[in-house]
Amino acid sequence: MTTKLKSKLQEDLTAAIKERDELRSSTLRMTLAAITKEEVAGKEKRELSDDEVLKVITKEAKKRREAADAFAEGGRAESAEREKAEGEVLATYLPKQLSDEELTDIVAQAVEEAKAAGAEGPRAMGAVMKIVNPKVVGLAEGGRVAATVKKLLAG
């Protein structure tokens, strides 16, 4: 039995192939290959949950963003555009990202909780991240979260 998200990816791949949408079909093929690779990694094959599939898609989307930046810096605009387009295809399967204001509000609450527990200053980073991460998993990139936490802890 496949998960809802994985079967949605497979259905969309079939539709993209029928529509002759080369960008969508190649992006979905690569993503499904990454999911399959994750399923067979380790000692025995297993079925990924929707959350695990979401993590794989998030990782793939991050790879596309980083590759697009690298291509842009290297003067390869065409390749950068392709990577950005692939990232946009993957973004349709990810939950909506938190805005900066929403993220700041969540982090501010976590900083207050950490201060109440006795953690203060830059050393409280770990305690705050432990509180924030479960709340923002899949909704904000780790680097963004860490930067916001550092900014609020610095005051």
Task: Write a brief structural summary.
By secondary structure, the chain is mainly alpha-helical.
Topology readout:
Elements: H1 4-18, H2 22-40, H3 50-73, H4 77-91, H5 100-116, H6 125-136, H7 142-154
Helix pairs in contact: 1-2, 2-3, 2-4, 3-4, 5-6, 5-7, 6-7
Task: Note the total helix count.
Answer: 7
Query: Which assembly state applies to the chains in this document?
Result: single chain
Number of strands: 0
Mean pLDDT score? 84
Evaluate the radius of gyration. Answer: 19 Å
**Helical fraction:** over 70%
Principal-axis shape equals globular
**Cα separation of the termini:** 50 Å
The arrangement of helices and strands along the chain is: HHHHHHH
Low-confidence stretches: none
Percent of sequence in beta strands: under 5%
Largest sheet: none
Which class best fits the helix and strand makeup?
mainly alpha
Explain what this protein looks like in three dimensions.
With 155 residues, the protein is mainly α. It is built from 7 helices and no strands. Helix 2 (22-40) crosses helix 3 and helix 5 packs across helix 7 (142-154). The chain is globular. The protein starts with a helix and ends with a helix.
